[in-house]
Structure formats: structure tokens, C-alpha cells
Amino acid sequence: YSNLELIVVNDGSKDDTDAVVRSYAKSRNDARLTYYSKLNTGVSDTRNYGFSKSRGEFVAFLDADDLFFPKNIAEKVKALQAVPTAGMAYSASIWFGEQGVIRTQEASIPTGNALEPLIDFTAGLNSPSSNLVRRSCFEAVGGFDVRLSTSTDWEFWVRLSGSWDVVALSEPLIKYRVHAAQMHLNIALMERDMNYAMPKLRKLGLFRGPAKFRKSLAKHAFIMSGSFYRHSRRIDKSLAYLSLSLVCDPAQAMLNVRSLG
Length: 261
Description:
two-stranded parallel ribbon, single chain, alpha/beta
């Protein structure tokens, strides 16, 4: 797919990104590549900044450590053009690390409305590098929330799915890099983000009733309980979130516990 613009945003990195990108642009002499360097303002603001510099009908976000397969954009543009009710297309992905391929992450939410599985925490839309978003829909929901970091993708997907469908492509079209410094492994940061995101989305009416919100909160609390125990051995935090899960929705909490077996 050649009818594109490639916008590289350096979010305050201290490595040789500036020199590498500028040398690449000079050697290729390709007007489709533009480069911006700015002070570090975080992932959400940087994506919004890159979007503000774009002009296309569709936009894809490629995180610095991930890779697109050559036909990624072409297939997703075609998919969105075929489904006018969809605001975003996403695909299966290949997860890889230093030792090579880890696994294939399938497109777990089928074409259609993604809101329920997202707020139920039963499935996701893979990584932001897997998403091609319709420009008008991105603008309508206001882009990424700059108060969020590790949970910004999930929160954006929920807002978008409240009004538009998604299109799922079963073929892996990106490679998602797994490494120890990934943001989602920062559980304290995730806790801060979700303590802000959950009430915000509730006020927007995206949980569609108090019972649905309690069920979602119970599932989220159960996930946080396991994350605090698994990643930091914080028994106090783990037990507190397990108790919250039981208080919010005992039936959902028991289902969560049984799923461990």
C-alpha cells in the first residue's frame, strides 16, 4: 500500500533516533516521510500529536518496538471500506521476543460490536499496533485520553466501540514484541489508570446499567488481585482486590475463582 504518509514522532528519547530517521529520509528522498521531535509527554499525547499532523482518511499507530507486515495497511483499509459501520479494523498478531516467535495471538473479538467483551475483560483487540482507525471516528471520540498510559488503549477501544463496530482479520498482519520493560507490566501504573478510567466510562454510560458495571468491576478487581500477586508479590493488594471482587459481584467472583481450576 503506497498511498500513505509515514509520521515519525520522537517523544523525547535520548538515543540516536533523530539522526537515524533524518538520514533515512535524506537517503530515500521520500516526501511521504515526515519527522517530529518533541519533549516527552507520554504515549497518549504523542499519538494524538501524530494524528494531528496526519491528513489521511484512516490512521494506524505503530509503537516503536512492533512491526507491520507489508500488506497490513492494504488489508485493513480494504476491510474498513467494505464495512461502513466499523470504526476500526484489527488483526491477529505474531508475538515474538529475543528467542523468536512466542505464539500467534488470534483476533479474539469477531467482526461486529466489541463493547461487551471489552468491558467484561473476556477479550481484547490485541495491541494498538494492530489497529487501523477511521479518522472521523477517532475525532468523534476525542482520541486517546492524555491522563492514561498503560490502560489508554483499552479505554479508547471501549469509547470507540460504544458507537461503532470493529472488523476482525484472522490473518496475522503485525508482529508484537514482548520484553521485560513493557508498560503493562507496571501494575501500580495500571491501578492508577483503571481507578480513573472505570468511573469515567461509567459516567459516559458505556456500562449500560449498574449491574453491568458491578460485574465488570468484579472482573477487573480479580485481574488486579492476580497481577499484584504474580508480578510484585503484594499480598495485601492482592487480598484487597479479591475482597472488592467478592463485594461487587459475588457470582462473578466465584466464576473467576473457578476459572483458575
